[in-house]
Description:
The complex is a heterodimer. Chain A is mainly beta. Chain A is 5% helix and 36% strand.
Amino acid sequence: MAKPRKPTVSSRRTAASRRTVLLVATRKGAWIFRGDGARRAWTADGPHFLGHVVHHLVLDPRDGRTLLAAARTGHLGPTIFRSTDLGRRWKEAARPPAFPKVPEGERGRAVDHTFWLTPGHASEPGAWYAGTSPHGLFRSADGGVTWEPVTGLNDAPTFRAWMGGPQDGTPDGPKLHSIIVDPRDPAHLYVGMSSGGVHESTDRGASWAPLVKGLEVVEGLDPSNIAFHDPHVVRQSPADPDRLFQQNHCGIYRLDRPSAEWVRIGKRMPRSVGDIGFPIVVHPRERDAAWVFPMDGTSVWPRTAPDGRPAAYVTRDAGRTWRRLDRGLPREQAWWTVKRQAMTRDDRAPVGLYVGTTSGEVWASRDEGERWACVARNLPEIYALETGEPSR
Amino acid sequence: MKVIVPSMLQSYTGAREVTAEGGTLGAVLLDLDRRHPGLRFRVVDEQDRIRPHVRFFVNGELVSDLGRALAPEDVVQIVQALSGG
């Protein structure tokens, strides 16, 4: 573990009043790491749900107390656990996300696992969205106790075709992810499907339209076929909700609405590193700033840190230039894989960044990626990191 | 009738042996879910398919049909075919 560094002036100023929790979802359970005011010391609370596959653990920013966990086990079906006291007690959803039962003789869909959780709009307390594998979008209006399918997406015939089958998704199945609720309008939604493209709704999910123009697909495939598009993660800029950033299977992109054409900003990444990866993180206050964590996308796609030297890259000019951030990270022989949900940030100043590896380490930076330190190791395979600020 | 549940479902039942009623295996599972909410969906999906790695035995006999008729003296055992690391 790296030696703690002296806190900055800004972190000293906020130390008394702000606390960050880091929510770690893994293949074998979940942990809540509680940071001190300076984000220097982290106390582990867990495991929660030891042995359960936890795909996502999210704190409701509207109350600072409610946690939702998307869980299953290797042998039991999927469910959602809910806590209203920051993980002291958990209660299972009364009706977890599930597809409607089909008539006898038809082959109906069944949720294998819930992959993604997004709290609803600030004006709609209790609203949550869930993305599942196989592809499905679900909504809760009661804080995650009961869930209903969003039929405008799940059952639309064109979308059913684009969703493909199990062979069209990730090695762990197709994933509906990156559920984004526009902070200016609760009816305005985006989702990503791996594979199956990026899609937008302006009517609360009743209808959807693809948003894939400008995105590349694997060489030899037809980009006009929506099914071939594989967004790994899409993030909306809090500083400018008309701006989206995307880490795609085929590069890093930016979209400035009302334009509907993505621009591949990853072309400006160093050629030796490339612009393949899983996560992308967007600055909470600067519209031009975003971070990625590249993975090796050459030859057979190892999806490990290029050359065994992990690094984040930051752009502060909307993708025109990128800068390597690796101070404090291992210099060699570190063959990390960082999944799409396993890099996140907090809202503090300077912004804290957090990276979780499939080898069970959490690395953090308190200064927007300039310096990194390992804050946890020996955890199970990390699927997702989220941060939050608990209410007092 | 007596239902024997595996360790990973005992967070629902609080015990290895519980009772439930019903004229079929499916009806017994619905009654189990009424008594122990959430249990059924962990072992049977929304299309009423038995989940992978889950097996039901009635009096020691493997049963994969939720419509299988049961008598009150039957013993149902839920088994999880554990695998993987």
